[in-house]
Structure formats: C-alpha cells, structure tokens
What we know:
Blueprint: H1 3-12, E1 15-20, H2 26-41, E2 45-50, E3 68-69, H3 73-78, E4 82-88, E5 104-111, E6 122-125, H4 132-142, H5 149-162, H6 173-183, H7 189-197, H8 202-213, E7 215-217, E8 224-229, H9 231-237, H10 247-251, E9 258-264, E10 270-277, H11 284-289, E11 293-294, E12 298-304, H12 307-322
The structure holds adenosine monophosphate and manganese (II) ion (MN) (2 copies).
Amino acid sequence: MSYAAAAKAIANASSIIVTTHINPDGDGVGAGLALVHALKGMGKQVRFCCPSRVVSMYAFLPGFAKITAVEDEAAAAKTRRADLIISCDAGDVERLGAVAKVKRSTLINLDHHVTNTRFGDLNVVDVDAESTGVVVEKLLRRMKVKLDKTLGECLYTTIVFDTGRFMHSNTTAHTFRWTAKLLETGIDAAAINRALTYTKKPHDLLIQKMGIENLRVDEQEPRLAGIVLSADTIAAVGEPEDWGDLVEIARSLAGNQVAYLLREAKDRKTVRCSMRSNPPFEVGSVAQALGGGGHRQAAGCTFVGNLAAAQREILARLRHQLS
Ligand code: AMP
Ligand code: MN
Ligand code: MN
C-alpha cells in the first residue's frame, strides 16, 4: 500500500479527475466527494466524473450538484485530459466504465475490495478498511488535511453505507473510533442517517413488495434464500431509480446465512447478481469465479446467460459454500 506515493503524485498534479464505480453507492460517492473537497482546498483543479448517473438519494451531500456523468466513449473523448485520475471504491477497471478511457498521465486506485485487481499505476488497496472513505481519510491525514464538517459528512456516508449502518461483520472497534472523529467535526449524524434511510418513494415500496413476493428459501438448503426477478416481473412494476439493499429482505429471515438477489436484464442476456453472507460463509469467491468481485461477505457479478442458467449455476455454488 503506497500512501506516500499517492500523496506525492497528488502534490505534483494540477488537474485531477476523481471517479468511482458504475452505479455509484454511498461509499463511492462519499469517498469521491471528500477527496474533491480536500483537493480543492489544496488549490487543485478538480472534477468529479462518474461512469453513470448518481442517484438522487445522495443529493444532500456537499458537491453532489457538480458531479458529471461520463457514460460512453463519446463523452470520454470530450472530457478534458487530466494529470491524474483517482478512482474510489472500484475493484477492477471495467467498473470505471467510460471514465477509464479519459486521457490522463497517472491513475491512482483507492479501494478496499479483497478482489481488487491493482489496475492503477499506483494502488492503495486496504482490504481491512471498512469503506473506501477510510482509505481516503488515511491518505488525507498523510497530506496534512484537517477534517472539517464537509469532509465529515461525506466520510460518514461511506461508513454508514458500507457497514450497513454498523451491522455488517466489517464493523469493529476501529469503526466506532473512526466514526467518533467524524462526529467531532459537528456533523448531524442522525440527519444523514435519515437521508440515507427514510427517503423511499411509493414506487420504492412497490419494489420491496415485489421482493417479498418473489422471495424463496432453498428447498435443499434452508440457510440459503434469495429473490429472483425475471425481466417481465420487473417490467410489470417498473425499474426503480436505485435497487438499494433489496437483498436484505432475504437476509432478514431467521436462520439465513447466505442471501442473493437475481435480476434479469431487459434483453434477457445477462443476470445481475448480489450476494450476502454471514461469517464464516463467503460469497466473494463465488462472485469472482463468475467475473465479478466484492468483499468476503458482500459481493456481486453480472452473469452472462438467461435466468434459469443463472439460478442453476449460482445456487449450486452458494449451496457449496454452505456445505
Ligand atoms: P452489490 O451486491 O451490488 O451491493 O455489491 C456488493 C459488493 O460487491 C460491492 O462492494 C460491490 O462493489 C461489489 N461488486 C458488485 N458487483 C460487482 C461486479 N460486477 N464486479 C466487481 N465487484 C462488484
Ligand atoms: Mn461501492
Ligand atoms: Mn466500498
């Protein structure tokens, strides 16, 4: 892990693009925005370019309005070259979508996924960090950036999101000590919690209903449960702006150890898969074997094939994890 090299590259750069993964989440957006604010404070020219649109749930974060989407090669070609691109929370270069095509001298990869492919020119990958926000804060400390309320709000969002509101197995004594430092900047943690939790629209509740209606406990392995959504089922309700943590419905069943969500794409050629597990069971390796990635207990992939094939292949692998 080369915090010193990353700090040096930042010191030497004048134009910087900050980015995160496709379908950015609270960790990617929060870590990226914290970096944007800190780098601006250092007098750098900074842009936040995302490979896809950021959902409106994050609109409360300072700097959200200035995030731009670079969604295809044409947009990448039009994006002004940067000395440095800093990627936050992406495990591999494919997750950067079209932003990977933007011209730059150096790519820094800041991340915490166990499956990270070290795709950067400089890689700061800390698999023990609860969120990429934790990696960013450590880097900022090296660069003598002082925490303030703006940074606190962005970084707090990363930890709430990636620990599942301090519920997941990555929550440790360090998590609470680190978060306490953020609260000391004067942030309103409860207001952020509300903004990240109580902002569902009626349509989002219909998505939850669809999740419950399509929930199934495995016949062979009662500790395995999931939600299977065909393209037709999704079309009947309509796609949400954000799928959020629908997989948690399967996980909330008493006795559940491994949970999954399968969503068939409109063209029926791929199936998006989210997986969660309780220790000691692992889903990261299953996602990785299918071309995706993530963490030991939270991972995802895009399965190439139809829904029946995805169910056959993925469920067999998940049952094996439990055996
Ligand atoms: P999700 O199930 O989409 O919430 O993702 C769970 C974790 O797996 C997150 O940390 C993601 O960054 C990671 N992940 C999800 N999908 C992929 C993918 N296709 N490739 C690599 N990592 C992924
Ligand atoms: Mn993420
Ligand atoms: Mn993350």
